[in-house]
Predict the 3D structure of the following.
Amino acid sequence: MTHEYFRTYRIANIVDAIMRNPFAYLHHLEGLTVNNGIYEFLPPWQKESALHKFIRFIADEVLMNDTDGPTRVPFGPDYLRPKWILPVDAAMLKYGIINEPLFFIPEEFDRTEAPDGEDEPPHTNDPHHVVNACYNYLLDLRWTQVYEDLMSRITDEVFYVMFLNRRALANLNEFLARYVGEVSRDFFDTDEAPLADLFAVDGELKRVRPPMWARRAVFYRDRGRCTACGADLSGLIDTLSVGNYDHMMPLARGGLNDVTNLQLLCENCNLKKSDRVVAPSNRYRRWY
Ligand SMILES: [Zn+2]
């Protein structure tokens, strides 16, 4: 995968800030959590992880907010009188998803007064016409494949830089666990039986063995070492044994079977932690 780093850190920063204090942003997150939104997170070991879903949701909000104002990016060879486009078009151009802008931000209306005796031009009655045009463009765009492609690219890049941050991942999983913990199997209709079957008891998902791709990702992220005590696990015969993969947010507390909820622990540290919620270590080894 190639990285263009289009607003990657800005979006990562917003995602991190919201994860640190999600309850301050609850009304922004309703789209994720109300109306059974949490059900999307329940199936085990989705490569489109909980963090992917969260990033996608926030990135979409950020791009929608660009229409307020609106946020403008110059486009075209004439730098003295550029045409203006929205950041979403700039992003799709940068990623090579489109070759030409799909939308130009219209000119502000003419604020000069109409000559005596003449009516103002009709559009001057609508001071919001620029914002409205941008907003409507984005509303339509969100149903298109090019937008879907853009969101996938942005999500992949932000995931890449955030996956190292175990504390941020633990915050996300702690937030989601509150919703999982409130799910009763009685909530599901008969056609949702597969979802009900994912639960061991109300509010607790069944343990599902992590697949090799998830174990590899976590093993290499944590560099083959116990994240708590630093013990080198790479020399052990059962390096990739399931026992070393700890759910940071325990299943018994509403934790998910999700790659973002795993960390590497040695057997001793895993036993010590048990089903408690312990903040993951924020100690990392230098690159060199
Ligand atoms: Zn350890």
Summary: The mean pLDDT is 89. The pocket of zinc ion is lined by residues 226, 228-229, 231, 265-266, 268-269 (CB under 6 Å). The two ends are 25 Å apart (CA to CA). The longest helix spans residues 145-162.
